[in-house]
Amino acid sequence: MLDQHDVPSASPTDGAQPGEAPPQGRRILIVDDNADSADSLAMLLQLGGHEAHTAYDGPQGLEAAARLQPDVMLLDLGLPGMDGCEVCRRVRQQPWARRALLVAVTGWGQAADRQRSQEAGFDAHLVKPVELQALEKIIAGLAGRG
C-alpha cells in the first residue's frame, strides 16, 4: 500500500507540463464530510484535467460510486452515516471496482489507521493535507492497472 511519503516527486518530464492536461484524465469521486475540502480538491483535480465529483457522507458516497463507477475514489475515513472503511469494503464487492483505485484521504495517519485502511481494501493511504503532486502520482499509476 502506498502513502504520500512513498511517492517520488514528479519531475518536469513526468506526464503533462505545467498548465497542460494530464495524458489521460480520470473520473474521480471524492467522499468527505468537509464539503469545503472536498469541493476544493475537486476543483484542483478538474483544473488538472480530471472529471471530479463529490459526496459528503458514507451512504451518499456509496450511491454516487454505484452511479458513476469512478476510476478513482478518494475516501475520508471518518464519514457520517457509514465510515470510509465500510464504504471501501462495499465498493470492492462490485465487479466494476476491480479496476478502481481506492485511496484513503484522512487526518488519521498512525500505523493502526494505515493497517485498518489496507485491510478494508484501500490501495493507498494519504494523510491530510494531501500533497496534490503525490495524489497525481498515485492516480497516474492507475494507467498500469488492468
Your description of this structure?
- Mean pLDDT is 86; it is low at 4-22.
- It is globular, with a radius of gyration of 14 Å.
- It is of the alpha/beta class and 146 residues long.
- Helix content is 36%, strand content 18%.
- The longest helix has 13 residues, at 35-47.
- It has a 6-stranded parallel beta sheet, sandwiched between helices.
- It has 5 helices and 6 strands; from the N terminus they run ββαβαβαβαβα.
Q: What is the compact description of this entry?
A:
By secondary structure, the protein is an alpha/beta fold. Helices cover 36% and strands 18% of the residues.
Measured distance between first and last alpha carbons: 17 Å
SSE run: EEHEHEHEHEH
- Give the mean pLDDT: 86
**Full CATH superfamily name:** Response regulator
Radius of gyration: 14 Å
Q: How many separate helices?
A: 5
Given the helix and strand composition, which structural class is it?
Answer: alpha/beta
Percent of residues in β-strands: 15-25%
The CATH architecture designation is 3-Layer(aba) Sandwich
Q: Which parts are unreliable, with pLDDT below 50 for 5 consecutive residues or more?
A: 4-22
**Total discrete domains:** 1
Helix content: 25-40%
Shape: globular
